[in-house]
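re: the backbone from monday

yeah here it is again, tokenized this time
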């Protein structure tokens, strides 16, 4: 496979944007709504198709879109690593992550990228005015979401990143693929029982309605808890646990969702979107 940095789309002005969205369960997702708001802010009509597929169906259904140039692709859990294997070209950050969440479909060629990490950092730094520099980070989960954000986290110069997961096999793959001194790994039962500066939930537990096996001792009065999942009008399960355990703040993944969509639209069609009106739209929904 040949690796390349992203190149701008040849499309400079469009009236209609076509998007295919793949996942196993999409009923919880607001991604289509976010893309619609982004497109409408530019006077562009969004044509969205959603594909809820089983693992064995993904490859055939995605490759079938190659004949539909200009129908770009978004991928959510649990298919970001599987979709990586279907790309013809990758951005460097997607290659490093080993997973993709967006694919530009241009003349039958799949260009894969991962906008999760950049979207996450933009939300943390620009929207919430937080910094990871010299901080102790605990990241929960070692799947596609973690892989998409890990290099971006490293670039923020934290003091340390401890990655926690149930599966030792996944942790070993992380250590192999990201051989950095500041990264260490552990299972849930081996998390040090002391406060972290940031706890980042990169699992799908909140989407599935599951509690993670965490001890409140890992939260101190200055701990910020960041969630990759999201709800509009209420807190996620992880956020409720964080606040009950005394966290200074707990931020869900809605801002990350909006910012990664903004990054993706630039990658797909060289569109420059201002995220502020989109975020304000959801703030109004929260207050209603």
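seq for it, each position gets an aa:
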């Amino acid at each position: 496979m040949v690796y390349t940095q992203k190149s701008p789309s040849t499309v400079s002005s469009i009236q209609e944007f076509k998007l295919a969205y793949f996942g196993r369960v999409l009923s919880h997702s607001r991604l289509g709504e976010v893309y619609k708001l982004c497109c409408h802010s530019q006077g562009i009509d969004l044509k969205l198709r959603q594909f809820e597929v089983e693992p064995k169906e993904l490859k055939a259904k995605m490759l079938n879109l190659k004949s539909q140039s200009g129908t770009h692709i978004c991928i959510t859990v649990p298919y970001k690593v599987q979709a990586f294997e279907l790309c013809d070209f990758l951005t460097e950050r997607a290659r490093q992550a080993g997973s993709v969440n967006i694919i530009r479909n241009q003349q039958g060629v799949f260009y894969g990228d991962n906008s999760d990490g950049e979207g996450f950092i933009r939300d943390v730094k620009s929207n919430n005015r937080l910094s990871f520099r010299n901080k102790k980070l605990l990241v929960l989960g070692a799947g596609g979401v973690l892989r998409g954000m890990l290099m971006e986290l490293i670039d923020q110069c934290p003091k340390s990143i401890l990655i926690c997961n149930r599966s030792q096999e996944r942790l070993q793959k992380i250590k192999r693929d990201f051989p950095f001194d500041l990264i260490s790994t552990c299972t849930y039962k081996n998390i040090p029982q002391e406060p972290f500066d940031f706890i980042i939930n990169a699992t799908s537990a909140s989407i599935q309605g599951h509690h993670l096996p965490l001890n409140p001792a890992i939260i101190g009065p200055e701990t910020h808890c960041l969630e990759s999942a999201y709800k509009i009008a209420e807190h996620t399960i992880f956020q409720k646990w964080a606040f009950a355990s005394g966290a200074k703040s707990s931020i869900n993944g809605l801002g990350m969702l909006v910012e990664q969509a903004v990054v993706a639209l630039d990658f797909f069609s060289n569109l420059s979107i201002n995220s502020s009106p989109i975020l304000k739209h959801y703030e109004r929904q929260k207050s209603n």
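The CA atoms of residues 56 and 202 lie 25 Å apart. The chain has a mean pLDDT of 92.
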